[in-house]
Specification:
The complex is a heterodimer. Chain A is mainly α. Chain A contains 4 helices and no strands. The termini of chain A are far apart. By secondary structure, chain B is mainly alpha-helical. The termini of chain B are far apart. The chains are: A mainly alpha, B mainly alpha. Chains A and B meet through helix 1, helix 2, helix 3 and helix 4 of A and helix 2, helix 3, helix 4 and helix 5 of B.
Chain lengths: ~130, ~140
């Protein structure tokens, strides 16, 4: 029986061949932040289950969230959440057929980054002042 | 959903095939559509979630946390958020898996694990919210 030979087929160029652009970076960031939120929601589930379990379990979990590392995680999680939310709004705008022009795309991608940082800082400033 | 194509008459498929077949996947645009629907519902729910978490961070004691989660409005918003978010993340992770995991067996295993994870997170959160809040009248 003749061996089945796999013909060397041309491959389309992959990520590393392209110059990084704003839209590409924010597209990658949208996916990475989505995956991070996917894992991070477990922290909220653990917090809730600890609360439902009783004071001693709750105090252990609360000790972590009150620690410097806990605050860092919460701060990072806030930014990731805001970035993914603004990136998602961008996708919804595209779903309605708007914002497809080059300048609009780049501006929306920039806004995703600037807006997410601004929202994150605003949330933490307001949280510290108001509560 | 409305058919937004400019001219549906150019389709090579009969109307019956289009209605019954729902494409190669067998479920049409359901995945795409539910992903968008939950994206929209996530926006107000996540804004409310952030406010609730900020209030919780400011009231770190057990009694205060119980009081906040017990409030019907907080509990209802959190329940809605958990349902919306766990569905959205399940659909999103399935897209990521289908993009990057090419081995068929691994892909099926990963999609199953993804569904299990989303359900476990969802049920754990809902159980905890209900256990904390049900029957607890704030006075």
């Amino acid at each position: 029986m003749a061996e089945a030979k796999v013909a060397p087929r041309p491959l389309s160029p992959h990520l590393q061949i392209y110059r990084w652009s704003w839209t590409m970076a924010m597209s990658v960031a949208h996916r990475i932040t989505g995956v991070a939120l996917y894992g991070g929601i477990a922290l909220f589930a653990i917090w809730l289950v600890a609360l439902a379990s009783g004071p001693s379990a709750f105090d252990n979990v609360q000790w972590f969230f009150g620690s410097p590392l806990g605050y860092l995680v919460l701060f990072g999680y806030t930014w990731i959440l805001m970035h993914h939310m603004l990136g998602g709004v961008r996708h919804l705008v595209w779903d309605f057929g708007h914002g497809m022009e080059a300048a609009q795309r780049i501006n929306m991608a920039r806004f995703t980054l600037v807006g997410s940082v601004a929202l994150t800082l605003a949330i933490w400033v307001v949280a510290f002042l108001a509560f | 959903m409305a058919d937004n194509r400019a001219d549906t008459r150019v389709s090579m498929r009969t109307p019956l095939a289009r209605v019954k077949g729902l494409g190669a996947s067998g479920h049409g645009v359901e995945h795409w559509w539910l992903h968008r629907m939950t994206a929209v519902s996530n926006i107000p729910l996540i804004i409310a979630f952030v406010i609730i978490v900020a209030a919780l961070a400011a009231s770190p004691s057990y009694q205060e946390a119980i009081a906040i989660i017990s409030h019907p409005l907080v509990a209802i918003i959190l329940i809605l958020a958990v349902i919306s978010v766990t569905n959205h993340m399940r659909l999103g992770m399935q897209i990521v898996i289908e993009d990057y995991v090419h081995d068929k067996g691994l892909k099926i295993a990963a999609v199953i694990a993804n569904n299990f994870y989303a359900v476990i997170i969802g049920v754990a959160c809902l159980y905890a919210i209900l256990k904390v809040s049900l029957g607890r009248i704030l006075v």
